[in-house]
């Protein structure tokens, strides 16, 4: 599968997990919009990391539970006009 939605998931992974949480040590993936093995592995990392309530299957499939629990970039207007990351459960 290749589309812009996949590219957005790849961007969120690279920005919120690789760049903003470097202590995780996760590798960056190519933001090409293709849902291949690298993207599936990244989704499995997210699923393991965000599975606090045990409600996410660690299967590499991006679904509603993964979407709700993974960190997403959120742009806000503060003093710096920075970008922060948080999940959709807030």
Characterization of the model:
- This protein has helices at residues 4-19, 37-49, 64-69, and strands spanning 72-75, 83-86.
- With 90 residues, it is mostly helical.
- It has a two-stranded antiparallel sheet.
- Strand 1 (72-75) and strand 2 form a beta hairpin.
- The radius of gyration is 13 Å and the shape is globular.
Comma- or semicolon-separated keywords:
mainly alpha; two-stranded antiparallel ribbon; 3 helices; globular
Radius of gyration in whole Å, from Cα?
A: 13 Å
Fraction of helical residues: 25-40%
| Main sheet properties | 2 strands, antiparallel
Could you give the order of strands across the largest sheet? 1-2
Summarize the structure.
This protein has 90 residues and is mainly α. It has three helices and two strands, in the order H-H-H-E-E.
Task: Detail the topology: elements first, then pairings.
Elements: H1 4-19, H2 37-49, H3 64-69, E1 72-75, E2 83-86
Antiparallel strand pairs: 1-2
């Amino acid at each position: 599968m290749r589309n812009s939605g996949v590219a957005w998931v790849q961007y969120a992974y690279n920005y919120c997990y690789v760049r903003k949480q470097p202590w995780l040590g996760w590798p960056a993936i190519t933001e090409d919009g293709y849902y291949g093995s690298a993207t599936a592995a990244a989704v499995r990392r997210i699923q393991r990391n965000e599975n606090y309530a045990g409600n996410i299957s660690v299967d590499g499939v991006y679904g509603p539970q993964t979407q709700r629990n993974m960190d997403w970039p959120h742009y806000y207007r503060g003093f710096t006009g920075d970008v922060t990351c948080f999940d959709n459960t807030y």
